[in-house]
Design goal:
The protein contains two helices and ten strands; from the N terminus they run H-E-E-E-E-E-E-E-H-E-E-E. By secondary structure, the protein is of the alpha+beta class. The protein has a single domain, classed as Beta Barrel (Lipocalin). Strands 1, 2, 3, 4, 5, 6, 7, 8, 9 and 10 form a ten-stranded antiparallel beta sheet that branches.
Length: about 130
């Protein structure tokens, strides 16, 4: 009887882990709200889609970007970011650079109490995304 109880508890914990991983929507767009300690510039639109094929892509606010990514439970990491090479206003270019730099430092993800996807670097504040409606 004791073994059955422990088995049921272990199964419940594993099911919880699976649903946590399912909280990360793949092949669905996210819209960035914050890069670390700073909100986005008004009317700028940065996006990210995590493809089930291990490719991430979106808009950096000025240029389209792409990178590989690896996901292992709550650990996530991105390969080098590539992008188109369009020029925009200096403030948008600086924000895009900060976003690309932040992606390269991401180590794990979680979903906040307000259902924001948070991509966390080793140090500092996360990139915070909302699930894109649609």
């Amino acid at each position: 009887m004791k073994t059955l109880g422990l088995t049921l508890i272990a199964a419940a914990l594993l099911a919880g882990c699976a649903s946590d991983t399912d909280a990360l929507k793949r092949d669905h767009g996210y819209v960035l709200e914050w890069v670390g300690e700073r909100p986005l510039i008004d009317n700028s639109h940065l996006t990210m889609t995590l493809g089930k094929d291990g490719r991430a892509y979106g808009s950096g606010g000025c240029n389209h970007w792409f990178a590989s990514y690896r996901l292992d439970g709550d650990a996530i990491s991105f390969g080098p970011v590539g992008s188109t090479r369009k020029l925009c206003a200096p403030a948008l270019m600086e924000q895009e650079r900060r976003f690309f730099d932040a992606l390269s430092k991401v180590q794990h993800w979680d979903v906040s109490e307000v259902e924001q996807l948070e991509l966390w670097p080793a140090d500092g504040l996360p990139l915070r995304f909302w699930l894109e409606e649609g």
